[in-house]
Every structure is written in C-alpha cells, then in structure tokens.
C-alpha cells in the first residue's frame, strides 16, 4: 500500500501539531552517537570482507594532455600486485550532484592535475601503494604555457543575466552608493572520512559499500559507469563521515573498486589518500565579484547589482550559483545580476556546502555594511528597511519570511549596540575589538522521496529508505517523526537507512534531506493512521495515539492482533515550487579581536538567529547551525585552495595546510531558532537548515574586523597579511 | 611506502653503527618520518628505531642547566617543572606547535630533525632540490606563501618548520651528538644549515651520528616570550615566530637574545641584534632599527612578501611587551 502526496498548495494544517507523543522537536541525542563515539559505527572502508584485495588510484602528474601509453609490466612485477585496471570505464571526474549518469570517462585525456587514470590492485594496501609509484606512463603534454589556470585570464561564458530598470543610472543618481570588488578563494569540503569503497561481485550482483550522499542517484551513476543494469547494483552507505557535497555524485574510488572486483572476481577496497581527496573530488570555485548598491538618503535600496565570475572544467555544466539569494533578499527596482564562467584546468568544480550563498552572501553583506556606513544608518536597520514584500523581479510571494525576526532577536541576544558605528573605538592591550553583523539567506530545496513504514503489533515500528545520514541526525529525526505520528517512543522505532534495496529517498544534499525524507515518513504514517482509524473505529481527529496504542485505550497488540501495518510514503514537491519563493533566513552577530601588530583575527563570540520552519530535533538542528557558523569562521579567516599558476596543481592538499577552523578558533556559538512554520516548504512545514549557518556568517566577521581596526578587507579569507595591508596606521 | 628493514638496537653504539651505513635512518617518534615514507618522499632502506636505547630523561646539569634527553617527548619537556619555571619560553614554543597527540609522540631529537613542510618537497611529482638534488626548485616562481625570506639560495627557499628549535636558539642550547665512538656538542644556532648549494642537508648530522640530548645553559634573568603568528590559532606553522629573552637594567636593555622562526631554512639568530639593542632605551625607533638590521638582506618570493612587514611588526610587538612600553 502506498500513501502519495504531491504538494501543490500550502499545507496549513499539519498533523504533527495535534499528536500526543510529544517527541517532535525534542532535543534527543542521536541514536548513533554512542556507536560513533566508541568507534563501532562501521564506515565504508571498515567492513570486514574476506579475501579482499586493496586498490590504489594512480593520478596524472600534469594538468592537460593525453596519456599515450601505460607501462603495466614494471608495476605488475612488483610484490603482491594482482592487476592494473586501466580500462575505458574508469571515471575521470566525479559526478555532479543529481547527475544520475556516469561522468566523463575518458581517463587518458587529462583535464586536470591529479586526474585518476588507473588502479593498482595488490594483496596488501602497502604493496599497492608502492607499486602505484612504479607505474610509468608516456604522455603527450599540451603546451603548459597555454593552460588557463587563472580564471581572470580566460574569456568567460555568460551563464546568467537578468536585468531590470537601469542600474548604472540609479548608481549615478542615488545619494549613497557602494561599488566594490571582492574575491573569494576556492574551498574544499574536507570531510573527515576520505572517499572509500569496497566492491564485491558475485557474477550477478555488484555490491558496493561506499561513502556517498545520494544513493538514489548514485546507483544510476554507478550502473551506467560500469555497464550494468540498476537491478544488478546494490550500494550500502550506513554511515557517512561527512560529505558537504563531495559525495553527492560517485567518484573514482567507487567505480575503480567495482571494475576491479568484476574483473578479478574478488572483493576490492579502494580508499583515497587525503591528498587524493583534495586533488580529485569537487572543489568550490574561487570567485571574483562586483557589488553595486544604490540607496536613497534613508537607506532605501534603489539599485542592486551583483556580478560574479566563477570557474569550472571544460564541459561541466555546474557554475557556482553565487547570485542565488541575491535575487530576492533585498529590494531595489534597478537590478543587474550576471554570472560568468571561465573554463580552467582545475579539478571539477561542484557543490561544496551551500553552493552559491556560501560565497555570494558574504560579499553582499560586506557591501551592505559599507552602505550602512555611507548612509550613517545602523546596519541592522538598513537590512530591516530593505526586506521586500515579494520577489523583487518575479513578483512571487514568500512562503514564509523570518528575516526581520532573526535580525531583531539576534540583535537583542547579542546585545547589539545600534548607536553610531565607528571603527577603532575599543582596544584591549594589543587587540582591537569590534562587532559586526550580517543577514543569512539560503534557498529552500526539497526533493522527491520514498520511505516505507511498518507498524508492528508489539508496539515497535520500522522505517526504511535508502536515505543517508551524514552525521546530521537523520536516523534520529525519522524515529521522532514516526514516533510522534504513531504514538511510539522513538526508542521503539528502528530506522534502517543507506541501502539501495530500500525505497528511494531524496539523498542528502542541498539541506533538503531532513524535510524531504521526513515528509515521506510523515505521508507513510498518515496512511497507517488512516488504517488504524478503521481498527479503532474512530475518525482521524479522534485517533489519539500514545506509548504504543490508543491513548488511555487499546494497545496496538490488542488492536491489530498479529497483523502488521505497512505503508510506503511517496512525497513529491509539486507545483508549489513555482508559486512561492521559499528560503531560510537568519542573522549573524560577531565580536572579534584583531591584533594591531600582526593582523591576526580571533572570534570572541558569535550569535546566529535562524528561521527554517519547524524544528524536528532541537539538538541536531542547533548542531547544524553551529556547524554552519564554524564553516563561516573558516570561510572568513582561513580556508583557501592554493593552485600553482604554472601547472595548475593544488598546492595545499592535506588538513595541515588547508586550514579548516580548529577548536581554538571557535568560541561559544549562540544559536537562536526563531519559531516558524512554513506551510509551502513541505507538508511537515520544515525547511533546510545545515547550509543556512554559513550563508553570510563570514561577512559578520569581516564587518567586525572593519569595526575593530578599520581594515576593510575585500578578499576572503581575511588572513593576517591582508589585514595588515589594509589596516590604517 | 617502500619495503624497508627495521631494527631496534638496545645500545647507542649499536644504533650508531647501524645508522652509519648508507640510507639508514633513525626513527624516534615518527611523526614526520613515517608520513614522509608513506608519500615516498623518504625511502630509507633501513629504519633504526631508537626507542629502546633509553634517552628519555630530563636531568639537572652540573652547571645548573638542564639536559633534555633526545627521546623525551615534547609533552614531557613542555610540562617539566624546571622547564616551566626557568625556561618558560621553551615550554610555550613547544605547546604552540602541532597538536597534543603529535606532541605526545614527537621527541626532542626528532623535532630538531624534522624536515621542511614545503609542499613542493612533499609532492614527489614536483621538482625539489632538497628531495632530489638537481631537479630544480618548484617553490621558486610557484606558491611560496610560507617560504623563507632570509638566507635562501637559488636552490631552495624552504623554511625550517619547528617551534621548539627557535626557542632553543634563543636560549643558546646545545645539541649533544654521539657517533663513530666520539661525542661532540654543537650550538643549536649552528646545528641547522642554510640551503646553499646543498639543500638536501638540513643539519650538521653525519651518517652514524645520533642526537643524545639537548643541554640548556643555566637560566638567565629576563622576560621570556614566544610569539607565533598564524592565521589559525592552533595546528598551523608559523608565518613568523619570535623567541625572546629580554632583560632590563635601569630602563635600558641589558639582554636581548632573539631567534626567529618561519623566516629561513634554520631558526634565525642574528647576533647583531643584541649588539644593537643592549644598552639602549626601548623605543619604537629602536625596534624599527632592529627590524631594519634583521631584514637588511631579506628577499621575498612573490606571495611571501608580507613576511617582511609582518616580521617588523611582530618584532616590535614582542620587544614592546618584553620592555613594557606602549607603542
């Protein structure tokens, strides 16, 4: 049996509000927390598989050209080597999120430094790794001087152009304006668990334990890459040690392990080294941006321009959607939004945590701070003044909009001083102290999802989907949804995820996971409740379930006898997506200290107030917000991919040299979750959370740096050398 | 990782004999060597594990100084009561490096011998004269943000990455070395080498020589400061670091032992700085003069140009703190 729900209109009534179990939104500890903390949660490379061979990927030490020959014999002669896999089905790039088909497979045509082209398989990992260094290739290297490694040196292709009114004219006429250029560095997802897979082939079915975010698409990608039907492929990803976009599509290790297992008829494990993870999986494009804001005397926006240049490999469709929230966040009649894409030979650019807003919002929000100063208006006030009623270009209404509440509640909690702001007002010893704020905005994404729910007469339930849990708490919230709807303590709900033998979930990506899969579980539970009304002989409105049965009445055993109730819930976003602008909003407030001598910046404290619809679990939601704020600190101060301009290789490819924030960089992070229900976002009235936490936070820090020491740095990350260069003496 | 022979001698003499042969490398904490072996930056034929020899002790020296065994862990040294009371600079320098887990494994001798973190050195598909003499220097003309500005050569612009040795250079400690049946004692300030034409050599150790200890001279009066500048507040190498022991007498500088990290192929010690500073009244102008002297021959390589003003500013901050004046 199947419950089906396609959302074509707002769902103002949600059953979750009238249930009796009272577990939804509660700060339950993740049910897998202990397993993870004690090391008993099994990640992709950790499955004990008998007779398993070990594979090591071999990558190209040049950025562009052709591999004309591979001398396999020397490598095969090494101790323990079983095979060198160099066939035409290996993939040269990782698949973009939601691709659903194999990415570029011409591994001998090299398009970036570090592109995988072969797999050395041996009895032990050490043997394979050593032998991989003996694999000699002949190459036809394209003229290195011709390699466009610098996006600025390439004639870009326009990806997006939208214009309304006359921005240049508005800029000339307006009493106040800001015209500023910015750059942001490339980012790596830097997930803790490296990409890894164990593949097994029994002659009929390919079973792969992998670390992937979206099994619903990954199964098609893998089947397509290795030339099998989907029903011959099974992917299992029970636990994923972080993805942040880097595991949306399949990568080289999964395909290489599969091809090797099929050829050698033995299980094969392939784990990327940390360096390979940096060199061959998705990067976030670096950007250069121009912001133009024109405002009236009172700060009302009259013109809004945001132009961005990003990069990607030839033939890739993805262009970092820098302007995504700029389209609707603030008012202004005269608008110009353009996005250009330069083709360069760096590894594939794709989705990395909050693609678009992660780098578009910080520049917009620094420009807003500059405008507030130009208008002599409090920066919070400036934002409040410019919240539009509808999408400024399309005219569509917002599904729900909590920016004003976030700004107000955040300011109050932080103790924001709305008086006249001037840099360099507070000094403690060597340190300038300052505060800054910024808005947050992130489009709400939602995706088609299926889940199966079984209510057992013994008062337990089973929730099943191929949905993944990247550490965010998916297992836990699904237990809460089913528990709330069916009147069960979540500890009596078994949640089984991460296996393509289960109904197709939405996958984890774009912050859509929780709202999408929880909606499918909700739909399935509604269908079960409908059946229960017949057993209990009541209407839906009278069906009060709690603690394993009808509240104050029959238990499920008494109601159902030995019969279990099983329903699949199918959720689809529907037409409503075109009728409303749905987005998460928020506000950040930061206090920083900047060393007057060295330009080092440390964040003293940070407050984030966010509105993202219904909170499903207060603890995991808070953790997501905090995680986003940590990413904000990294984007503001430390994270940058460095490429050698001569040969295009990535220079900093480990966690010692690619600087994600460490504990000591992260102060107490205060999170305020603004009460909201978004009836157009999903039937459970929830929106995405994870990425919202880093959509503008870097600007709060940048603005605080300016307020502290007077250095208006327009290049992210704001490293000490950049602060020193901009600091007035 | 290439296959290698592994031996664990029980005596220093035996260890010395074993490391005298070509391509035999001593192993202490392994926090650097093992990583480099995985990348095949280091491909020793023979690994000589020193951990059974017993050189972990930290003991009082007869002259009132302190002898730190070559195998004392960085953590043990940093928390040692006498280090904390008499050589706080050393404790702070150690604690500003790496992470707690790495410091628990890393040793005094190993830390002195750690190799550069230049990314062209650690990437075997890039040229590097230090890793493969004659192959060229990838960092010259490449991404050289963290590279040296003092004492570089056309062959190499790598930096020595450690913190502990910078403090030891300021403290004028000595490296005790045994090998080939004899013992020698080398000042830390002379232990590391500039790259010159032989950047593959990091220090003065010859094959068969093993560091047995580091000796600290008797404590001296003065303020001890270790200042490490970096974008991330932990687990990052210094953009620039300054180790300082500064004493004042009647408003004038009486001692100024300074050493610098992140600037060169070795902990940088310039004896002219003490000559310039001693006997003078502290002032912004004096500090600037010191910086000018220090950076007289500084040469940047593209992106690391910021190190010149940053060193100037950091030195001023350290000297101001040490002499208790406001700038």
CATH homologous group name of the largest domain in chain A: Aldehyde oxidase/xanthine dehydrogenase, molybdopterin binding domain
Number of domain modules of chain A: 3
CATH topology category name of the largest domain in chain A = Aldehyde Oxidoreductase, domain 4
Task: List the total number of helices of chain B.
Answer: 13
What is the total tally of β strands of chain A?
A: 28
Q: Based on helices, strands and strand pairing, what is the structural class of chain A?
A: alpha+beta
CATH architecture of the largest domain in chain A, please? 2-Layer Sandwich
Classify the beta-strand content of chain B into a percent band.
15-25%
What is the CATH first-level class name of one domain in chain B? Alpha Beta
Strand order, biggest sheet of chain B?
4-5-8-6-7
How is this structure best described in words?
The complex is a heterodimer of chains A (729) and B (327). Chain A is α+β, with helices and mostly antiparallel strands. Chain A has 3 domains: 2-41 and 447-572, Aldehyde oxidase/xanthine dehydrogenase, molybdopterin binding domain (Aldehyde Oxidoreductase, domain 4, 2-Layer Sandwich), CATH 3.30.365.10; 44-145 and 193-280, 2-Layer Sandwich (Aldehyde Oxidoreductase, domain 4); 377-445 and 579-726, 2-Layer Sandwich (Aldehyde Oxidoreductase, domain 4). Helix content of chain A is 25%, strand content 25%. In chain A, strands 4-6-2-14-11-12-13 form a 7-stranded mixed sheet. In chain A, a hairpin with a 5-residue loop joins strand 16 and strand 17 (301-312). The N and C termini of chain A lie far apart (73 Å). The mean pLDDT of chain A is 96. By secondary structure, chain B is an alpha+beta fold. Chain B has a domain at 223-323: CO dehydrogenase flavoprotein, C-terminal domain (Enolase-like, domain 1, 2-Layer Sandwich), CATH 3.30.390.50. Chain B is 30% helix and 20% strand. In chain B, the strands form 3 sheets. In chain B, strands 4-5-8-6-7 form a 5-stranded antiparallel sheet. A 3-stranded parallel sheet of chain B has the order 1-3-2, with helices on one face. In chain B, strands 9-10-11 form a 3-stranded antiparallel sheet, with helices on both faces. In chain B, strand 6 (174-179) and strand 7 (182-187) form a beta hairpin. In chain B, helix 5 (88-95) packs antiparallel against helix 9 (164-171), helix 11 runs antiparallel to helix 12 (284-294) and helix 12 (284-294) crosses helix 13 (307-323). The model of chain B has no long low-confidence stretch (mean pLDDT 97). Chains A and B meet through helix 3 and helix 17 of A and helix 13 of B. Chain B: One of its GO terms (molecular function) is FAD binding. Chain B: InterPro entries: CO_DH_flav_C, CO_DH_flav_C_dom_sf, Diverse_Substr_Oxidored, FAD-bd_PCMH, FAD-bd_PCMH-like_sf, FAD-bd_PCMH_sub1, FAD-bd_PCMH_sub2, Mopterin_DH_FAD-bd.
